[in-house]
Amino acid sequence: MLVHRNPVHRIRLTLAATFAFAALLADNVAHATTLAFPVLAPVFSKLETSLHDRPVVTDLAFLLGLIVLVMMAYAARHIAFTLNRLFGKQRHPYLDIDTADWPMLTVFIAAHNEEKVIAGCLTALLNSDYPENRLKIVPVNDRSQDRTQSIIDGFAQRFPDRIHPFHRLTGKPGKAAALKDALPLAEGDIALIFDADYIPGKGLLRQLAAPFFDPEVGAVMGRVVPVNGGSNLLTRLLDLERSAGYQVDQQARMNLRLVPQYGGTVGGIRRSAVDAVGGWNDDALAEDTDITFRLLIHGWKTVYSNRSECFEEVPEEWSVRIRQVRRWAKGHNQVLARQWRGLWGSRFLSAREKVDGFMLLTIFAVPPLLLLGWGLALTLYYLNASSLVALVLPVFAVMAYGTLGNFATFYEIVMAVLLDGNRRRVRLLPINLLCFFVSLFAITWASVELVTDRLLQRELVWHKTLRYRSASPT
């Protein structure tokens, strides 16, 4: 038997075999459909003639069909999540733990040029009801050039037994690198992490610490709620996105025992678990996604606590939002390239966890795929394959928007608005097309940049999100 060692030849053979199988399957489907619906016979006849006479059109059509299937798979996933939140059993397994022998807790606050917000976060943590003798607060000042260090030192002078600053003057830039350097200062096995713009409530630390009584839990994630959701149109749209992403998407994955995601803030990690999977990767742009999947692959659970709410600032300017989304996309796709093999090969995961994990891992790879599908549809149209485009384009358009609209499907946004008890916000739903297109092109741009950075061996750069509050006092 002839075996092609050249990878290009093997790819061509694989594609040829796939197209042949698809053509055989399409013939059988078309035959069955015309028997059931005779009115469609002329359409399939014209389509069959077009495909057999024009092999390039066949290849493009098959690729477009695969993209449509991907879009439909994501849409079905999100619809299932929405229905679960509406009719399914809701899991909050650790929420009733109120009195316990609470573990030693170290809270890290990631801060880089955070003079506007750091005081609010520190004040909120000092007002926590977590036992003072079991709580260590470590502000991680990562090379700040503003008044962040002086504000932190002012708090440390007033509360020397509770606040222990870590001033990082040199080293690799980025949140992951800063946390990696600061983690040795932790006391106890549990570390909670907040970004400096977050304002934790009085009982939040207990809620986030409670799941760690389960020895299988490696990470915990709370719910993020925008504190400036009413500032302008953009923040209102992002409030919808956050609501759907946490209230529906994350909670449904928790309910269905799939793959909740640790989000890097308003959450915590078990230090021994992180050490067991190799520690923090200091070159990861999305350190939260990276640690989520490394813990998952090695059998550790991530718990989502929907009622553990914490307030954050969301971008108030489109330029800041685009930069944030580009960073997320680069970081997420970086983890995809590193972890997809380990995910499928993990012996600790069920088949449905692997499927859901892979769909979560590839979510930022879908927008470029969507644009490619649009390009293929237009190409087929101009190649006079209009009968084919007429069959798949309506499904493609509907499923594309339902899947990718602002990273939270149409259905999820509606359900989140109803669950939050603020129905008037649903009026903003049509305007989500604006966020949809902005995110679509920003993520595609970032994905292309990630590939070129890899080819040119350029180091990925972490960009901080701009803050909008008035500067904190010293």
Automatic annotation (TrEMBL):
Residues 1-32 form the signal peptide. SUPFAM superfamilies: Nucleotide-diphospho-sugar transferases. It comes from the Bacteria. The chain crosses the membrane at residues 56-76, 357-383, 389-419, 431-448. GO terms for molecular function: glycosyltransferase activity. The keyword Transmembrane helix applies. Keywords: Glycosyltransferase, Membrane, Signal, Transferase, Transmembrane, Transmembrane helix. PANTHER family: POLY-BETA-1,6-N-ACETYL-D-GLUCOSAMINE SYNTHASE. Belongs to the glycosyltransferase 2 family. This is Glycosyl transferase, family 2. It comes from Thiomonas delicata (Thiomonas cuprina). The lineage of its organism: Bacteria, Pseudomonadati, Pseudomonadota, Betaproteobacteria, Burkholderiales.
